[in-house]
Amino acid sequence: MDYIYGKKPIENIILNFSLKVKKIYLQKGIAFSPDIYKIIKEKNILWVSLEKKDLNKIIKEKVVHQGFIAEVTKFEFTHIKDIFLSTNKNQVLLMLDRIQDPYNFGSIIRSASLFGVDGIIIQEHNQVDITPIVFKASAGTIYNVPIIKVSNLSNAINALKQNGFWIYATSLADDAKNLTEISFEKKSLIIIGNEGDGIMKKIINKSDLVVKIKTKQNIDSLNVSVATGILLFKAFTN
Fold this sequence. Notes:
The chain has helices at residues 7-16, 34-42, 52-55, 80-84, 102-115, 132-137, 153-162, 201-204, 224-235, and strands spanning 2-5, 21-27, 46-50, 68-72, 91-96, 119-123, 147-150, 166-170, 177-178, 187-192, 209-212. With 238 residues, the protein is α/β, with parallel strands linked by helices.
């Protein structure tokens, strides 16, 4: 089982993925709106009211749960083959190279959900996993986007190339193409790099095009989740 917390993420999952919710824990004196309670009753979702000190013991990490915690079914990853089986001729995928911050990961998932990304590819190691913080940061949108976990990003890129995808790596390198000057292909993989180190060189070398977001460079770079939102806006408004 996994746990999620926070009022908005839990409400979103109750509204859109009620079958994922196994049990809800509420802090005494705090409540959902009548509409949410109606769904809880219709779907026979178990819920209990607890003192704050007891609620704090449910999730191991110290989190600001706002008085709302839910127990949900274990998150299931999608297999990369399922992406290739899609009949959709226009597909945009994200690949994350060693994203470490759960808040960044959750925000990226939220942006991917809003823009309709077809899948997010992560690697099994050196990557933050699906945690309660990621659930919260995604604002309850984590079930909206297929997330694919692979053992090797390079192999995944090779498979995507064989299935007609163009590979776009993001970098601040001087020779990177300005985002405003490119148009994404119908089948595109956009690679987002680690918060500090960016994308590994061996991954960049496999890309078809290296892209950067031009800024005034008053600071080092954009936050990775903000940059992802800008890239997705461009990809979906070609």
